[in-house]
Amino acid sequence: MKILICGMGSIGVRHFRNLQTLGVTDIIFYSTRKSTFPQIEEIMHGAQVFDSLHDALAEMPDICMITNPTSLHVRTAIEAAKHGCHLYIEKPISHTLEGLEELNRLIEMHNLISFVTYQFRFHPHIKLLCELVKQKDVYGDVIWARAEWSEYLPDWHPWEDYTKGYSARSELGGGVLRTQIHPLNYLSFILGEISELSVHCQASGHLGIDVDDLADIHLSFENNVTANVHVDYLQKPRVHTLTVVTNKGRFAWDCHANELFFIDHAAKKTHFPNENFERNDMFVSMLEHFLHCVETGKQSAFTVKEATSELSKLLNAVKS
């Protein structure tokens, strides 16, 4: 199985190293060679690197991993799909809907496996919480939820000028609403289909960037549960938490503390340990899942079609 990785920033490097850990060795690269990742030349030493996507695809890879800036995802994926590549695409799928209809058509036409990489669907606590909320006799009916993910953008990639990264540049598809879309995705994973959402986002000016650096999203689900999501590029120390309230108590998850518990109305706490967990475990699990899907022909946990629907809802809410 030959894999083409398009883009060698930090996430491309992570996937490359994880593929090696999983024993995958037939890996080629398409790169503009503009990566600022430390020791990138050393990491890629001896690898087959193409300056042209056309030339890279001529090598007939089975899988194309798309890890370049958001604004380039769809056009890269379309070319890869035309060559019959299964698609492993970094979230968000895009910053606009342009080209997604064609991409979905190509995926269906060529019977391709597609996966948009929401790693928190593979976090042990999120997976467990998805099952726990179904145990209504024990934990009650979910009423509402709130997620917060706040991180100081200048700390993300200390080796580069944060204002030059794709997350901070509108022409590359940046902005916190799209870049930090994870809570929106894992809430729908836990709570079900989103029926309505509204968005307020703004550029605060504190970071000197022209994209939104804070956003609030209100969600309604088809099961009448509501939720709120807050994301920003501004807080330090970082925060990533989730609260799910039921009529018998509440679940509280702290990503960085690696803690999940349920506290009932009598203040009794039940802890759900996640021992020996490392952040990279999610990324390895994603890769294993996708490779298994390609080998078996089974569709993935979150397809391009599903990501298109999610993005459409988000963009419609931004316009309204």
TrEMBL record:
Signal peptide span: none
InterPro entries named among the record's database cross-references: Gfo/Idh/MocA-like_OxRdtase_N, Gfo/Idh/MocA_Oxidoreductases, GFO_IDH_MocA-like_dom, NAD(P)-bd_dom_sf
Gfo/Idh/MocA-like oxidoreductase N-terminal domain span: 1-117
A Gene Ontology molecular function term of the record: nucleotide binding
UniProt superkingdom: Bacteria
Domain GFO/IDH/MocA-like oxidoreductase, chain residue ranges per copy: 137-251
Keyword terms of this UniProt record: Signal
Stated name of the protein: Oxidoreductase, NAD-binding Rossmann fold family protein
Species in which this protein is naturally found: Alteromonas macleodii (Pseudoalteromonas macleodii)
